[in-house]
Amino acid sequence: TRKIIIDTDPGQDDAVAILLALGSPELDLLAVTAVAGNVPLPLTAVNARKVCELANRRDIAVHAGCDAPLSQPLVTAEHVHGKTGLDGTDLPDPTMPLAEEHGVDAIIRLVREGAPGEITICALGPLTNVATALTRAPDIAARIGGIVLMGGAYFEVGNITPTAEFNIYVDPEAAEIVFSSGIPITVLPLDLTHKALIDRTRLDAIRALGTPVAEAACGWLDFYERFDVKKYGGDGGPLHDPCVIAYLLKPDLFTGREINVEIETEGRFTRGMTVADWWGVTDRKANATFIGGLDADGFFSLLTERIGRL
Ligand code: BDR
Ligand code: CA
């Protein structure tokens, strides 16, 4: 099994990503660290626990991390995820307690406790927690096996500004710290997630599982899907964050290549843009594996099968 930490701002797609991890015996989820993003931290910390309880995993340690980006006020996305961040299925308030330890301290401790290279960080929201851990404890960079993150965009450009993807835009300074850390980074940008469209047929396949977990997931996805279909006019909304977990489970479903990615922290119109040197026109060294290709049917059958285990 691979040991992972999920850093997240649930978010319907984050919630489904957590379910995918919990339904997958290949992954050992050491902790969930909540961060401010789609909605403020008090809500993401509640939502993460709701999802664990839904999957009957009250044993998972859920930590609250940073409540604001490193150097700018928080930007949220209630227009996508609803007021609670998890609109679409109402779950009871969690009864499992929030871990006392701060999310950043948990990341530092777990990485130090693990063998070098043993722990992979799955980052599904703004990178504030991860960057703060790296700044506070630079020794952990050499011990982190890899960071697989949903964020950024290349050909597909932005979803929160014309050039920036939400997770990077919310905390560009944090993203810059992560991308320059020297840790092996795998980036799953909008270019990839816009190939993971949750259309009616795929949603029905999950619903047909007939379990409470499947029903909850479909409520979320339905809410989320309707929003994005309206916006993008495509087959269904992009299911961003579960791609991170699926990548760890079945990397063969994905294709990409190593390139240099820099984070724009200044641009007047382009703050938060991932400047990806796809064609190798600079001599900047590759610092990330940029994933762009997806076997979408393979991805959705994996997701459906794993949700069916919960
Ligand atoms: C990302 O932003 C959030 O709204 C989603 O949860 C995902 O992590 C997509 O840009
Ligand atoms: Ca997210």
Automatic annotation (TrEMBL):
Keywords: Glycosidase, Hydrolase. It comes from the Bacteria. The keyword Nucleotide-binding does not apply. Residues 4-300 form the Inosine/uridine-preferring nucleoside hydrolase domain. CDD domains: nuc_hydro_IU_UC_XIUA. SUPFAM superfamilies: Nucleoside hydrolase (SSF53590). It holds the Pfam family IU_nuc_hydro. The keyword Hydrolase applies. GO terms for molecular function: hydrolase activity. PANTHER family: INOSINE-URIDINE PREFERRING NUCLEOSIDE HYDROLASE, URIDINE NUCLEOSIDASE. This is Nucleoside hydrolase. It comes from Tropicimonas omnivorans.
